[in-house]
Amino acid sequence: MTQYHPLTEQEAIEYAKSIPGLFQADAALSSREIGDGNLNLVFHISDPAAGTSIILKQALPYAKVVGESWPLSLDRSRIESEALQIEGELCPDLVPRVYRYDTILALTVMEDLSDHIIMRKGLIERRVYPRFAGDIGRFLARTLFHTSDLGMNQQAKKLRLQQFINPDLCKITEDLIFDHPYTNADTNNFDEAIQDEAEALWNDQELHLEVARLRQGFLTNAQALLHGDLHTGSIFVTEHSTKVIDPEFAYYGPMGFDIGAVLANLLLNFAGQEGWSPDNASRSEYRRYLLQTVKDVWATFEREFRSLWNEGCVDRISRTPGFQDEYVRQLLRDTFGYAGCKMVRRIVGLAHVADIDTIAEPAAKERAQRLSLAIGKALIKHHRNAASIDELIDIAVKAAE
Ligand code: SR1
Ligand code: MG
């Protein structure tokens, strides 16, 4: 196929068959478009007789969630496949295998992870993932360290930065996370019941100042190659395995943005526990699990990041005693701030999360929304003074009391 166009399910089969080694030539393949995200087509192609399958992900030239009025560059597909490749070199067990990238069709063919479940869904079902904190902490430490000036040659890093210039997707984040929730923007989307909360966000100058500082970091701090959208819908899990998918928002930005995304989404589920019903496992027990996971993610990240630094920092002057402690302290502060921004946007902004939106009882949903905003705002306001991950736990626990 020589020209870009969105594939049909049948064309996806023909495409899959044209790739040598994936399926038998005479296999009777079936194809389903299963994309439920905001931006892309996702085809699940399987050979039921052989029990084999693959995923074919194709970018659309606009944001699917809004429509053709919001054009988006197809280059994000290249960015996603190249980010997956780098992540795969650094953490082979934590990302799907990529079989092919097609520049013209803006399409990536990759491993099918249907034996896993999207983590957000798992958390909504109140499942427990014993490997998750260790795996994601290691993923964060390795991908962020090795793509930064600490872990790679600084001239090579500048060239890599060039490879990941991602203006359209950064613009989505700049608007939907760092701007629109703090003004009466058309894209905002919130329940009438929390109109008072939205207006409070629009008028809180102290909050705006902190968000402006965090936004500035997102715009200018090219610290490491980020995943860029590391929420629990971008992570597949089982009890024994963790796989990070969807790095189409990848760009060079502040490390705390990725770490904060993971923690924010655990905390959104924490807030969503307001939708608890007596036939589920105890709400407080599950909340303890979530908060312990938050602590373990940070602890693993910090331990692994420091050990990578101690064993392999490529920058002589960065090895000066005291600099590592200062650097990690700043990462913690950024993590608090970006986690807060990511919580606020999921309640009043364009794109929400199922952890909150699927709560059936309106009063419980409203409580969960208010709790998310309370935690998010407190994290943003406190972020420049953050000194320990325990403070984040305290903020969540106190807000839920
Ligand atoms: C228009 S895209 C909305 C959101 O979906 C993605 O997952 C990102 O989080 C983006 O902000
Ligand atoms: Mg995505």
UniProtKB/TrEMBL annotation:
Tell me the function of this protein. Answer: Catalyzes the phosphorylation of methylthioribose into methylthioribose-1-phosphate.
What does the record give as EC number?
Answer: 2.7.1.100
Instruction: Give the protein family.
Output: Belongs to the methylthioribose kinase family.
| SUPFAM superfamilies tied to this protein | Protein kinase-like (PK-like)
Name the enzyme's class.
transferase
HAMAP family registered for this protein in UniProt = Salvage_MtnK
What PANTHER family is this protein classified in? METHYLTHIORIBOSE KINASE
User: Which GO terms fall under biological process for this protein?
Assistant: L-methionine salvage from methylthioadenosine
What GO molecular function terms would the record report?
ATP binding; S-methyl-5-thioribose kinase activity
Its gene is mtnK
Keywords for this entry? Amino-acid biosynthesis, ATP-binding, Kinase, Methionine biosynthesis, Nucleotide-binding, Transferase
* Keyword set includes Iron-sulfur: no
Annotated Aminoglycoside phosphotransferase domain residues:
32-265
Protein's recorded name: Methylthioribose kinase
Q: Where does substrate bind?
A: 229, 345
